[in-house]
Amino acid sequence: MNKISIQNYSLQYSDGTESLRNISLEIPANQITVVFGPAGGGKSSLLRVLNRLNDLADVIHQEGNVYLDSVDILSNKLDVINLRRQVGMVFARPVVLPFSIRQNLTYGLEVAGEKDTERLNYAVENSLHKAALWEEVKDRLDDPAIALSGGQQQRLCLARVLALEPEVILLDEPTSGLDPISTGKVEASLQDLKRDYTIILVPHSVQQAARTADLAVFLLQGELVETARGEVMFTNPQDQRTEDYIQGRFG
Ligand SMILES: Nc1ncnc2c1ncn2[C@@H]1O[C@H](COP(=O)(O)OP(=O)(O)OP(=O)(O)O)[C@@H](O)[C@H]1O
Ligand SMILES: [Mg+2]
């Protein structure tokens, strides 16, 4: 089943940049969809469309349709706060809050009105398990989050998103600053998480794209060049431009 449907979507920023051009894409539920391609191709812009973060950018024109389940998420009547709970985002550089590990995870729920200590404790433990961080931090939940390593902070940011129980998780180069071991942990937790979530990942390398993609989407200068199952895309791409990029001939 498809979770998100993007239909003939185009986006133009006020400096004239046409960062997405007539994109049509069906994003399946409970799989990892990887959006990859050279810098400036529109990957982050596409992710930001999906939780309306582009509302904060200087957009002069957009057209087309984007549906989450069957809800039109571009509608100006949409409850954007609610959308962002359903569609969580993890960025390249982890930004932990200047609180304890525990408070980083309860903050969003408390803002949303949750006061029940038992439910908050459950959310802390459950989200840390899902982000593959529990074992490393369970004995120091009240330590400042900033004392964690970069890889741990990144998983804490993932846990913070998971604590809000989203349906879709957007990850924009979530392992770009991480060592291979931390990267491996994040990739492994994504494989578990896809049972419960729809995951859209901008990878930090072609290798990561090939390792993680159920569905792979190649974006080049705002254009969707090719969409294919991961195992097909990285062994037998149909478009010469995809093949050149995968082979490292440009980008
Ligand atoms: N807020 C903005 N205002 C104006 N132009 C923008 C904005 N954000 C992105 N752009 C432009 O849109 C195009 C696509 O940018 P985007 O960040 O989506 O690409 P990307 O594929 O994520 O690149 P990278 O791999 O470097 O992260 C670029 O030309 C960029 O300069
Ligand atoms: Mg980007």
List the helices and strands and how they pair.
Blueprint: E1 2-13, E2 18-28, E3 32-36, H1 43-50, E4 59-68, E5 71-72, H2 80-86, E6 87-90, H3 101-111, H4 117-130, H5 134-137, H6 150-163, E7 168-172, H7 180-193, E8 198-202, H8 206-212, E9 215-220, E10 223-229, H9 230-233, H10 240-246
Parallel strand pairs: 3-8, 3-9, 6-7, 7-8
Antiparallel strand pairs: 1-2, 1-4, 4-5, 9-10
Helix pairs in contact: 3-4, 3-6, 4-6
The protein binds adenosine-5'-triphosphate and magnesium ion (MG).
CATH H level, superfamily name:
P-loop containing nucleotide triphosphate hydrolases
Average per-residue pLDDT, rounded, comes to 95
The parts where pLDDT drops under 50 for at least 5 residues are: none
Here the CATH topology equals Rossmann fold
Q: For the CA atoms, what is the radius of gyration?
A: 18 Å
What is the count of β-strands? 10
If classified by CATH, what would the architecture be?
3-Layer(aba) Sandwich
- Structurally, the number of domains stands at 1
Strand order of the largest sheet: 6-7-8-3-9-10
- Helix residue percentage: 25-40%
Structural class: alpha/beta
What small-molecule ligands were found? adenosine-5'-triphosphate, magnesium ion
How is the biggest beta sheet arranged?
Answer: 6 strands, mixed
How do the SSEs run, as a string of H and E? EEEHEEHEHHHHEHEHEEHH
Strand content: 25-35%
Number of helices: 10
CA-CA gap between termini: 33 Å
